[in-house]
# Entry
Amino acid sequence: MFEFQLAYAQSSQKILLTSGTDEKSTQDPHLKSRFTLKRDLDFLLELHLKEEKRNSEFYADQNFKVNTFSVIPGFVYRVHKNLRLQLNTSYRNISEESVSDQQSHFYDGELSIAAFLLKKLSLRAQIYYLHARYSGIKGSLAEYSILQGFGDGDNFSWNFQTDYKISSILQLQFSYNGRKAADTDPLHTLRMQLQANF
# Structure
């Protein structure tokens, strides 16, 4: 069994400020596919050709145009009806036209686990690794947009989330997120939330 999705996503925003206009736009034609290799094993593949632009009349040093080519293969293994494992990896080649078409390369891997217990409790965990070789302008808005807050080099993030259904209207959620960007100290975040759905 197999499935293909061909899509084109576009978004744009233009803000009129006293200092001039500020424009942002994104275009992302992409292909998603899923192949069932066995009853409990799927192979996933995504291809993206993304373009991001920003143009500010007053803050010209924040202007950029970034083109990204991404290949994202992955596997989903259903160990049990209540337990799922997913492994993804990706390669991204990014060029910035504002930096004489310099190339940046990114390799990442992600392992996630989802378990559903007793119809009331769900557990999710994820580990993410990113190796970035960024060749653009350091400290620029384009760098922050491309690296998504990570640094040039080896980066890690991890998270754990649990949801417990107390009753038909109450749900308790607890989450922990960790993040270690290259050459920085780890950042830890804990959240707890009680939801009431009427």
Summary: The first strand starts at residue 2 and ends at 17. The two ends are 40 Å apart (CA to CA). The mean pLDDT is 88. The beta strands are 2-17, 20-38, 41-56, 64-80, 83-96, 102-117, 121-133, 153-165, 170-180, 187-196.
